[in-house]
Design goal:
heterodimer; A: alpha/beta; globular; B: mainly alpha
């Protein structure tokens, strides 16, 4: 049974690009345009969340904090995928509970390597 | 008439410089030329008055020029103040009327590029999906596994060896059968060898029967000579002759049958040898066929492996190209973020100018636009390293923050 990964990004093109890479590796993908949209779509088993940081409605860091409050998903690993490269921002993500931080533009293979390390069994 | 006070300062000084030596020279000439003392002093007084007049004119001119400069400065200041005011008014117009238009145009650019890029990536996703499907089908047809991966070389080698072994088993079975038939034929040939002794034995039986018949005839003659006494012996001799006759007939039959058997065996051997020769030829042809089939299979296998290898290389190249394209397609996200931040900064500037103007209108106290605060807000909005690098380059700010490289992965 294939594993499910939620991709949260306000850019549809980035969601598509990430989707191409993940689907090509055999993962099922759920797409959401921001943190609030993602929370409304969270149901069933989600093995990993890949989220942008700078998004309207609910930014990535707030989204991570909200997910960590959800009983069903507090142990779901979250990988931030963002143009943001500042160390201070990365530390914010770590403090919120993110497990990894990838700076855009990303190499699909590096994303897949990171995903394979983070995804729940 | 032109007054000396109207002359430029340089002209006045020049007149003074030229006239004083002349006056002094004329005065000296008159004095040394025998002019009276009264005339001399009168001339000197005229010269002195002239010099004083020139000096006063110079002083007056200097004061006038200072006043004029002052007036000009005041006038310039007024003009400058007026220009600033009209310039500020223009800037307000830019901020309240033009900046929103630019902002809206930029927003449209973002929306258009986002929408088109979304469609482009969706189509690209479809193309990638079709390519992967085509590759899977091709690999499957070339003997690949269910997941599209081609069989490893050692699996193909095993398959080749297995098929070779099975075909050789068929060939070996045919050989074994042929050898057994040869053995059988040898036995049949041996049977034929028994026919000659049997015929000889039958001839011996015939010879013995003839001799017995002859002996029985002699016995019958002797029995006849003996008369009554030999009557019983004559009966025995007749029986012996009958037996001899029958033995002779049996011997002839044996010879006949033995000849028939021998002929049959010879015919069988000849037929068997002919069959064996045909079988041998068939076996040779079978072995050739097996070898040809194996060779063709191995060539086909090699072709399949080469095609599979080529396909694998093409698949790798396509994957690399797809990965490269996926990296390039992420540009729209960064461009959109940068344009969005510029748009926000333009809106911020527009609001700030309006606010400042409103305060100036209310208080009447001029207020400067705080560009530093605006730049700080710009900095706070940045989400990409490009924006921060540009900002640092243009403002001269020091690079103090630590950051990750593009594409870098950090695990916490």
């Amino acid at each position: 049974m294939s594993k499910t990964i939620m991709v949260v990004d306000d850019s549809a093109s980035v969601r598509n690009v990430v989707g191409i890479a993940l689907k090509g590796a055999g993962y099922d993908v759920i797409e959401a345009r921001d943190g609030a949209d993602a929370i409304s779509k969270m149901k069933g088993k989600i093995h990993l969340i890949v989220s942008d940081v700078n998004m309207p409605n609910m930014d990535g860091i707030t989204f991570v904090k909200e997910v960590k409050k959800m009983a069903s998903y507090k142990f779901t690993p979250i990988c931030m995928l963002t143009t943001e490269s500042e160390q201070a921002k990365m530390m914010d993500g770590k403090a919120a509970g993110a497990k990894a931080w990838i700076v855009k533009p990303f190499q699909p293979q590096k994303l897949l390597d990171a995903v394979s390390k983070l995804v729940l069994p | 008439m032109r007054q000396i006070s109207d002359l430029p300062l340089s002209d006045t000084v020049s007149i003074l410089e030229r006239s004083l030596p002349g006056v002094v020279g004329i005065t000296a000439t008159l004095y040394f030329g025998g002019l009276s003392s009264a005339s001399f002093f009168a001339t000197f007084a005229i010269a002195l008055v002239t010099a004083v007049s020139v000096w006063r004119a110079y002083v007056h001119r200097t004061r006038s020029r200072k006043r004029l400069a002052m007036l000009e400065a005041q006038e310039n200041e007024q003009i400058s103040s007026s220009s600033v005011e009209s310039g500020f008014q223009g800037l307000e117009d830019v901020c309240t009327r033009i900046l929103p238009v630019w902002s809206q145009q930029m927003n449209t650019c973002r929306d258009l590029s986002s929408e088109e890029m979304n469609q482009l990536t969706e189509r690209f996703s479809g193309v990638v999906g079709m390519l992967e499907h085509a590759l899977e089908v091709s690999k499957s047809q070339l003997g690949g596994g269910p997941n599209g991966a081609s069989k490893p070389d050692h699996e193909n080698d095993n398959l080749s060896r297995s098929i070779q072994g099975q075909l050789h088993e068929v060939s070996d079975a045919l050989n074994t059968s042929h050898e057994r038939k040869e053995e059988l034929l040898a036995k049949v040939r041996e049977l034929n060898a028994f026919a000659e002794p049997l015929q000889k034995m039958a001839e011996d039986i015939g010879y013995i029967a003839n001799q017995t018949d002859l002996l029985a005839l002699n016995a019958a003659i002797e029995a006849a000579r003996a008369g009554e006494m030999g009557r019983g012996f004559a009966v025995v001799a007749d029986e012996v002759r009958n037996l001899a006759t029958r033995s002779s007939a049996t011997g002839k039959k044996i010879i006949e049958r033995t000849r028939e058997i021998s002929n049959t065996i010879s015919e069988t051997v000849r037929q068997a040898e002919s069959n064996a020769e045909q079988e041998n030829q068939s076996l040779l042809r079978t072995e050739d066929t097996v070898k040809t089939v194996i060779d063709r299979f191995e060539r086909s296998l090699q072709t399949v492996e080469e095609s599979s290898s080529l396909l694998a290389n093409i698949a790798d190249s396509i994957r690399n190209e797809v990965d490269g394209a996926l990296v390039l397609m992420q540009f729209q996200d960064r461009v959109s973020q940068i344009m969005g931040n510029v748009q926000s900064s333009m809106d911020e500037l527009s609001r700030h100018i309006v606010t400042v103007q409103e305060r100036v209108d209310q208080t009447g106290i001029p207020e400067a636009i705080d560009s530093s605060a605006l730049l700080e807000k710009c900095w706070a909005r940045y989400t990409t390293e490009h924006e921060r690098a540009n900002h640092r380059e243009l403002t001269g700010e020091q690079d103090t923050g630590k950051r990750a490289e593009a594409g870098e992965v950090a695990f916490f």
